[in-house]
């Protein structure tokens, strides 16, 4: 495509910034090349490049207008139009304002990458060329551009090329190493570690398929990838942050070689170190590891308790509820009921059969036990009685649930009947439909609801001031 990359190749910029001359290779281009640009899609006042003789304010206003046209083209996914405008915008590299001139490479890099990633005629060769030029347009962005270049190569399945670029970036240095550069280098090393893990995983798969019939060199090569990956992955997860992909790969490496103590330490630190940002996945990884190790239910529940405080709608809450219900402690049964009620507060669980089945079962057990602990149900329902009926138990939902999933409708109908009474429209519709198909089963449910919702829940005040939808 006749894009801004072609313009870069022809050398539209008259000179690089002082920041970009770190490698001593400045590019000089005759100003005559600028006058050759003519883009029919440009507004009239942007058709001719601004020369150094113009006032700086006019130059800046022109480029600002050009940038607005580029942004508009990007928003409309008009990649060719954006590329054409970019050929004009490249002149910002010559801006007389030092501040604007230093900011230009960042803008060109961000926008140029977006265009090249989406343009139908873009090639990997063009992207590679553009990335290399952007790396040399500013040392402060060198490592960031390297990472983005690597991501693009990986997305195109060029694993070896990505690894080579990471290796080159890993050895890059410029001036005194700053804190920002140090963090970026650790990221470079971490992604290199991911690719080492990828190679290790391929060797592991091949080795397992050979079932022991492999040469010692294969095992040595695999162990070499393990050492390289482990060193880099371990370094990045020491830095406070969210490093889920790196942690998972590192744990996989360690577990394969049965270094379980290290895994426990890493995952515990990742989950509970206060310097790290709150991360539900950290607790999930730790829980899954402990479960694989056969830890006690008490230990597992302590991990899930913290996860519940962070993400009460997490799918593991069903597992947590099941553990609590099997416990012999009364307070655990109470907490289990609270957890399942809370789970169903979230829209993502509205049509989850197992969740409704758990709630129905737990409420039913309480009612069958002479109404003991009925206050638990009362307490949970009182905070929901104003909005759960419309949220869960409308006539519309009754019809839809019955048509799409009879099991779901049955579980919800039992809960609705108990909490709202036999006159609840959800319960009435489902029980009426159910009696036509499975008369005996639904007659039993109707009797249960009639007995318990009137005798126990009214006495406890659960049904007081409720609106029967």
Automatic annotation (TrEMBL):
The organism's place on the tree of life at top rank: Eukaryota
UniProt-annotated stretches for the region Disordered: 1-21
UniProt-recorded name of the protein: TATA box-binding protein-associated factor RNA polymerase I subunit A
GO terms of biological process kind: transcription by RNA polymerase I
A GO cellular component entry from the record: RNA polymerase I transcription regulator complex
Record-linked InterPro entries: SL1/TIF-IB_Component (IPR052669), TAF1A (IPR039495)
Organism, as annotated: Mauremys mutica
